[in-house]
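Quick question, first post here. What does this chain look like in 3D?
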Amino acid sequence: MKLDEPPGVSQPPTRPGQLKVFLGAAPGVGKTCRMLDEGRRRAARGTDVVAGYVECHGRPLTEAKLDGLETLERARIAYRGRTYPELDVDAVLRRRPEVVLVDELAHSNAPGCRNAKRWQDVEELLAAGIDVVTAVNVQHLESFNDVVEKITRVPQHATVPDDVVRRAHQIELVDMPPEALRRRMAHGDIYPPEKIDAALAHYFRAGNLTALRELALLWVADRVDEALQKYRSEHGIGGVWETRERVAVALTGGPEGETLIRRAARIAARSARGELLAVHVARSDGLAGGSSAAALGRQRRLVESLGGSYHSVMGDDVPTALVEFARAENATQLVLGTSRRGRLERFLTGRGIGDTTVALSSDIDVHMVTHERAGCGRLLPSRRRTLPASRLVAGPVAGLLLPVLLTFVLDRTRGTLNLTSEALLFLVTVVGVACIGGVVSALVAAVTASLLLNYWFMPPIGAFTFSDPDSTLALGVFALVAVVVAGVVDRSLRLSRRAARATAEAETLSSLAGSVVRGDHTVDALLTRTRETFAVDSAELAEQPVDDPAATQVSVGDGLHLVLRGRTLPASERRVLAAFAAHVTAAVERARLAEAAAEVEPVRAADRMRTALLAAVSHDLRTPLAAGWAAVGSLRSPDVDFTAGERDELLATADESMARLSRLIDNLLDMSRLQAGALTLNLRATALEEVLPAALESVPADAPLPLIRDLGEVPPMLADPPLLERVIANLVSNAVRYSPPGQPVLITASALAGRVELRVVDRGPGLPPTDRERIFEPFQRFGDTDNTTGVGLGLALARGLTEAMAGTLAPEDTPGGGLTMVLSLPFAETVGAHLPWGRDTQHGTGVT
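> Answer (accepted):
Ran it through. Tokens below.
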């Protein structure tokens, strides 16, 4: 056993544990009760179940469901004079149950625990082979952090990465209509009576709950969709299951692309959860329909602006590639533009991409959309530069038939042309056959044409003549020229195919690089793009080479291998795959570096704070201490006989120095309490007249007293009087410091929309908008050049105390020049309103 292993864990688990998550649409919907019901059902079936950590929030119904379940003791973590109960991971590992119940997955553990987050505790239990049943609310998912804050105005400090929940073996949504949840709240089934009114008026408004419910439903629907795709892939299901409308639009880079995209977006919008997919097939034969990298870039941006996603795949057969992509993405509809070929070109080349796609689509609906370029011909003539099987057969046939047909025509017009002209016509025929079928066909045509030219047109007519040296030389030169021309044509075709393949590869790599630049550089995103580009069933990272001869494997470094399953990739595609593997390698390395940087960042932040503190307080703590020390030392000196006035002046200096030192220390202590979340509040109705006189005592004697206006009609506000006094004192001191000499600071107040707004106005130099947030950083002074007027905590502390009282503090321009600090606090009648920094992880309310 290793020294750092907990007791009882000496053997590796035979399999990792399975995670089941009860996802709550909002606080109070009953996810903890559902988790406990699940535990009781499993225990009734004979499963060894223990309750590792269950948060009942004082609810009798929830506590009753714990009866009959073994409950483990919680770990007691001491921090800053308080004790916090946390999940005891070591106790669970020693007990080793089959299933453990762990509530509040997004909870942040107290400092001193082995992991910073509870979801990390859960992952450790899963790695030990213990199944975990847990619960979390949708607002704690990391991807919804900013969205939920915009909806509810309450920041969510405790979050869990979406990927942790997505990897769960089972996810069960616990939902409740908003009005039913509000009735539960009103009946006291969720929070104690003193919190009900505030919760109903703020976080638990019907609109908030409806929005949270929709977020939860959409997230779970996406998770179900992922599970469906995985099931279809594992079971080789190629048919389309119309569980969700997905509209795929085929882009060629032609001018009709924007028309097709907008039409496909309208089709997708007709469904409540329709999804738009744009796909471009990079063909190795160069027949991409006039594709343009610049046009494709514009079309990709248009797709993304409409909420869709852009995909690029490689394929020689465009219809097959389109249909395979649509089936792989479970697309229900496919949108194509009508052909840009003219009537003559359609007659000569036969069935086009659209017709072939329709024939292959089976259960996928295909929309052929007309556009302004339909039937107008391609922007550039499309040259056939490949030799499909049909041309390999047609070439030799043409090499036999065309010379015979030309002989028949020339025989009918005998005497019109001389031998030289007839030989040139045969030569043109041979070159034409070479363009159709390559060198082999040209050889067949050259031999046939030589024999026919010798028999029908060289004297003596009607007999083969090989004895005449001139005739023999002429035929030999004719055959040689025909073969050389055919070889040159064939070589040009092969070079064009290589160039087309290189163009297709460059186009694919350019699309990949563009996706990386746009931020789609996570490992999962790159694996998905790899699977789509190479039209395989799956693309994954494996720690060991897989024992599957049919799989394509590429090493990506650090013992990892990129494994593609579904088809064998030719050598030409493996070159492009190597580039994808390089991007995956970089993504893996970036993820590891980001994880390492995240671990180092708290240490760096603490180091920066410590450095800033030492630099800031080195002078500011020493100056009042030195002044007070000098005054006291002078009073104690027996060598000087001070008058009564001089003694009073020295005592005043000492008193002022000690008071200044005390204020500095109080600011430092209050800032540390704010950052630790340990500040105690005593909120009550507070009038401005109650706190302003004491706050203005900090104004220096040599500065004019602030002007106070318009306070008579302002109602009392909800605040902690001593803290509000500190906030106003810091704001006034800052305004006085930057006001011109002799120019008093102005203080006004007004009532607006249930809040009191206090304005502290100065006529100083003001601040540019880019610097307005910097002034609220700890140990930060404007300009960073003055180290004699305070440690730079005044505004940082003022904002922190204001936000602790559910208020806001923001700067704005003073008309005519200067800066105005706007302090906003709620009316006193909103007592009990939620505070954004509390410990109640259900919805961010409460007072510590």
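The chain has 24 helices and 23 strands.
Residues 19-234 form a domain with the Rossmann fold fold (CATH 3.40.50.300).
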